[in-house]
Specification:
13 strands, about 400 residues, about 35% helix, 7-stranded mixed beta sheet, 12 helices, alpha/beta, 4-stranded antiparallel beta sheet, binds pyridoxal-5'-phosphate
């Protein structure tokens, strides 16, 4: 697929000749009649009468890798399946950053795991805050390039659509950054919410809505890595299946860094079932339904007197700013009286008045709307206007 090779200098020097753990499954890849090399039990557990989980799984089950390669239109050699994208993030940090040195660049407000993985690895995090345009957010690409250069960072984490912003990053901006830092850093594009991000098609049959993945731009760009997950659009957050799609040489390094057996047998079975044509058609239908509910939720929130802004969202959640920090308490309180829980974002810098709400089912949204309107007791006439105008 890609003719350019992955720059070996970007891999941690002390790991360049590291081959990782050699499990029974990896040290004998051929076939055999009788397998006695992994200390597995010779009979199934009563909970698993067919013995499907009796043996250790393949570290990267080929049928799942193939199915994901098909789903993402990617080269199977460049795919690493892990325990959610969370593990993929961790693998990238561990493979590319020396503990205590190097560094990663993030663009706040963003997904917390980038900084958590860096911190656990003893790696400094350099944040380049996003610009807030009132209805969307944008990444400061020049700032990211400058900070990455100045600090010698090895990794840049971008999310498109972002969490909690809901905003997409224009593809040329991502690709320019990849090219600008190609001799120094891997740019990771987290596409966890890509399925929700395309232009809407209101065909009753439900047209395609996913945005365009930058996986199609990997060829010739060895320092771009793309993260995908089955946790969001595919409805399998509990199964923990995430994928990094990248240059095959980087993928090899990441597999060596990975803890053994990342795909348990029951997880493999459910993931394969989720990638069947029928399940995928069902997923596409559910995504479409979610987008319709997103509009509804947006209207319900925007109409609330304590809500100042609802950001445009390309994902399955909305980020809203209230008139002030206390108003967040009021909104969260109203919802919680109806046993509805949403995410308080006030702990994040620049979001001291914000709340994030996942787009739920139509029935969930009925309840949210009811909770939000129930609370709009007409306030004393003279305060109504001042509240609305803020
Ligand atoms: C939810 C989310 C993920 C998914 O993580 P998994 O470990 O795959 O469940 C990844 N990135 C972002 C930005 C997210 O919000």
């Amino acid at each position: 697929m890609s003719s350019a090779s992955f720059p070996a200098a970007l891999v941690r020097e002390d790991l360049r000749d590291f081959t990782g753990y050699s499990s029974a499954r990896t040290s004998h890849r051929g076939t055999a009649r009788i397998w006695l090399n992994a200390n597995e039990a010779c009979a199934p557990n009563a909970a698993d009468p067919q013995g499907r989980s009796r043996r250790y799984p393949s570290p990267q089950p080929p049928e799942l890798v193939e199915a994901l390669a098909g789903l993402y239109s990617a080269d199977p050699a460049g795919i690493v399946v892990g325990r959610g994208s969370d593990e993929a993030i961790d693998l990238l940090v561990r493979a590319l950053c020396r503990p205590g040195g190097d560094g990663v660049v993030t663009c706040s407000p963003t997904f917390g795991m980038y900084a958590v993985s860096a911190r656990l690895h003893g790696v400094p995090v350099h944040d380049v805050p996003q610009h807030d345009h009132g209805d969307t957010w944008s990444v400061d690409a020049d700032g990211v390039a400058a900070v990455a250069r100045r600090t010698g960072a090895r990794l840049v984490f971008l999310a498109s659509p972002g969490n909690p912003t809901g905003s997409s990053i224009p593809a040329p901006q991502v690709l320019n950054l990849v090219d600008a830092l190609a001799d120094q850093a891997v740019v990771v594009l987290d596409e966890a919410y890509l399925e929700f991000s395309g232009e809407r098609s209101d065909m009753p049959s439900g047209g395609s809505v996913a945005g365009t993945s930058l996986i199609s731009e990997l060829a010739g760009r060895p320092t771009l890595a793309v993260l995908r997950t089955l946790s969001k659009a595919h409805g399998l957050a509990g199964a923990r299946v995430g994928t990094v799609v990248c240059h095959p040489e980087l993928a090899t390094v990441l597999r060596r860094v990975q803890a053994p057996y990342p795909v348990p047998v029951p997880v493999l079975e459910i993931a394969l079932a989720a990638l069947s044509p029928r399940a995928l058609a069902d997923t596409a239908y559910r995504v479409h339904a979610t987008l319709r509910q997103r509009d509804r939720l947006c209207s319900a929130l925007s109409a609330h007197p304590l809500v100042r802004t609802v950001y445009d969202s390309r994902a399955n959640f909305l980020l809203a700013r209230c008139v002030d920090a206390d108003a967040v308490d009021a909104v969260i309180g109203e919802l919680s009286e109806h046993d509805i829980v949403v995410r308080d974002m006030r702990h994040l810098r620049g979001l001291q008045d914000a709340v994030r709400i996942t787009v739920g089912s139509p029935a969930d949204l009925d309840e949210v709307s009811r909770a939000l309107t129930a609370s709009i007791d007409p306030p004393p006439a003279n305060t109504t206007e001042t509240t609305r105008n803020r």
